[in-house]
Amino acid sequence: MAGVIPRGVHHPQRNTVRARSRPHPLEGARIIASSQTFGWEGLKVYLGEKAGWDVTDLVTRGHLLAINLDDVPLQVEVGGGGAQTVLPGTLWVQPGREVFSFRVAQRSQWGVLVLDPTRLASLLDAPVALAPGFGIADPAIVALVHAALAETRQGGLSGQLFADGLVTALGCQLRRRYGGAPRGTRGGLTTHTLRRLTDFIDSHLADDLRVDDLARRAQLSPGHFSRAFKEKTGTTPRRFVQARRVTRAKALLESSRKLPMAWVAQECGFADQAHFSRSFKKATGVTPTSFVRASR
After folding, report:
1. How many CA atoms lie less than 13 Å away from 89 in the CB half-sphere?
2. How confident is the prediction for the chain on average, in pLDDT?
3. Which residues, including other chains, have CB under 8 Å from residue 260's CB and lie 6 or more apart?
4. pTM summary value
5. Torsion angle in degrees (nearest 10) through CA of 106, 107, 111, 113
6. What is d(CA 164, CA 146) in angstroms, rounded to the nearest whole number?
7. Which of 187, 208, 219, 254 is a good FRET partner for 47, with 20 to 30 A between their CA atoms?
8. In a 3-state reduction of DSSP, which class is residue 85?
9. Could you give the CA distance from residue 190 to residue 288 in angstroms, rounded to a whole number?
10. pLDDT tens across 223-233, in order?
11. DSSP category for residue 2
């Protein structure tokens, strides 16, 4: 499972003849979906299946969260640690930058998230220390992993704000499980600053907005900004931006019944017309076309 990372993986002895002769961990794997082309910073997601794994002295640059998507338990033989069982729907957590070896004799279906430790620390204002774990059934962490897999299957249409929000949420849950506390909050988000941020968001809805952009304008660190923003608005930056996009779309559709839906989708920052239609219906209960008909 955790050996499915085509980039960001290296062997400590990669310059030796023996290391070069080893098969790549992905050899023989079938990749069903991947976030490689999404341009997400700090997060990579993979779904796939493989007949078996036999990996020695692997090191990944990012923290791995691997979920067993089979309906049967997986037996993972861990180098130096004996056999571990990963039940269906549970996780294997492997800290980044640590050497590990493992073997899975049976065919497995899996999903893997790779969290960049530097990006994670930036979004949380503090590093997250992890320990290897097998068969983790933490409901909050598992739900976030499934959210990442679902977004990857849909083509990563929600952009960098989704990735930042997911990494932040996962970091908070992992920190809760493994210990550590967030750094103290230094001031909140004033009404004046929120108004300026809202004006900026409204004028850049067509862009792929990032938490870093908004935090910089609020003169806060990304982690502090995300917490302060939710305290002030009751929602996350990603959901706030999504709501503003739907509001803009409604205003455009009400202003003219002849606007092309593809143009409205692009103008409001949706990935494409299908993404626009799904997001609009989720927020309003009706499709854009039905909304236009009702507004007549």
Report:
1. 6
2. 85
3. none
4. 0.70
5. 50
6. 16
7. 208
8. strand
9. 35
10. 888 889 999 99
11. T
